[in-house]
Amino acid sequence: MKNYLVFDAGGTFTKYALMDENAVILEKDKVPTPSYLDSTKEDYYQVLDEIVNKNKSTISGIAVSMPGMLDSQKGYCMTAGYLSYLCGTPVADELSLRYGLPVTVENDGKCAALAEYWKGSLKDCTNGAVVVLGSGVAGGIILNGQLYRGKRFTAGEYSFICTQQEKFHTPEGFWGMQGGANGLYHFVAKHTGKDWTEYDGLKVFALANEGDPKVLKGLKEYTDSLALQIYNLNILLDLDIIAVGGGISQQPLLLKYLKTSVDEIAGSNPLLEISPYIPKPNITNCTYYNDSNLIGALYHYMKLKGEQD
Question: So what's the pLDDT on residue 81?
Answer without folding.
Answer: 85
